[in-house]
Known about the structure:
Layout: H1 2-24, E1 30-36, H2 52-65, E2 69-72, H3 79-91, E3 100-106, E4 113-116, E5 119-122, H4 123-127, E6 142-148, H5 154-160, E7 165-168, H6 186-197, H7 202-219, H8 221-226, H9 245-253, E8 256-262, E9 267-272, E10 284-291, E11 298-302, E12 308-312, E13 320-329, E14 333-336, E15 340-343, E16 351-352, E17 357-360, E18 363-369, E19 379-386, E20 393-394, E21 402-405, E22 413-422, E23 426-435
Parallel strand pairs: 1-2, 1-3, 3-6, 6-7
Antiparallel strand pairs: 4-5, 8-9, 9-12, 10-11, 10-13, 13-14, 13-15, 16-18, 17-18, 18-21, 19-20, 19-22, 22-23
Helix pairs in contact: 1-3, 2-6, 6-7
Amino acid sequence: KDLDVCEHSYKLEVTEDCRDIFKQFPKALGLIVLFASSVAAPSRKLPPVPGVVKGVDRMEDTFRSLGYAVLRLPVNLASWQYKAAMKAVASVSFPESYRHIFVYFTGHGGNDSIDTPDGNLKLVDITNPFSPSEAPHLECLTKIFIFDTSSLSKHSILRSILPHSVLLFPAHPGYPAFARTDDCGLLTQHLAPALRTSSKSFGDIVVDVTGAIAKEMKDDPLWINRVSSESQPLLCQTLKAEVSLLKERMEAMTPLVIIQKVSPTSLSVAVSSPPSSVQFHLQHLHLLYKRQGAEQWTQVEVNAVQGGAVVISNLSHGKHYRVKAVAVYPGDEEISSQEMPCDMPTEVEPVLLQDLEYCHVDSVEFKVFQPAKKDTMRWFGVVCQSEETPQPKPIEWPENERVRISELKPGVQYTVTATAHYPNEESVSVTKSFEIP
Length: 437
């Protein structure tokens, strides 16, 4: 009864820790639970391994850099505490952005269990709390269990596989995971840097890492002297998971650009902050644009927290431009959006600006641009008409200045048309309709 009370109390404590982490990192890509045991295994003549702390440190740094929330449990807890912690994590509702759950352990293990200060903890007590029957709300999340330990039965891997899950071990049974007790395990040494730098899927990374481990164990005299020649290393039994950590990290850090409006000489562009900008500590957000063929980009600062709309002015008629957003993170790491092409209107198109304003109850103001290239244009005119006055009324206006139309009637639909006339009876028109309230 006392142990049941302790388990319940510790489960509640870890549950609150998870909820606090989810509040702090609501847009993380997933959660990794880290725990370790440095105790010796006298029955197998294995010494203490204080280097497991380095392994936990390395994996924490790696997964934080990839955009994951981290729950780090104290080293050398009792088996019932680790068991209660797994149940606690699996009982919590995860934020919508979370895609994966990683569980990492490093230390000694054997006979389908891991060694703890009070004995051992069965692998099924680590994996089963995340099964569909125990945690149906987590069924769609990928679970990846990483055990940087040795001497675990090959059959335990196959029995413990859950839907959408992977179990990863460093070596074939009979091989030690630690070459030196003061350093992290062999799996962590290879896996952590690969996860940081490889754009491959997690499954392909595992194949590369286990192959490198097998080669190192085969070629290193230190390993050959510690194991029998009959137990040459084999690739660890695992599954390929459709998980691409570096790719998903890039997606979460990439800003979004949408071209909203194209005017004669300007663009209105919406820039959205990356989905996980807070998680990755976004420092600056820029919008960049350049004319096609130009070498230099022109930069405009954007609100890093909210994003926003940016108007780019003084562009050239009929030219091709490219627009992109760049997010800047600590260490001057820059992540760019996809470049968006934009063709400015050709020089022969007349344009009525959209910023039409009602000045009084019987008048309206707007601005008209005639084509920039005038040498081929015969003439250019602006007319106004309505249902009551179907005959178009020419409007006199100063070039590239605001136009005001007066003596309008409320409730009547008016239409303003700007037309550029060219040789061979060709013409191009733009029409704007409005109604006086």
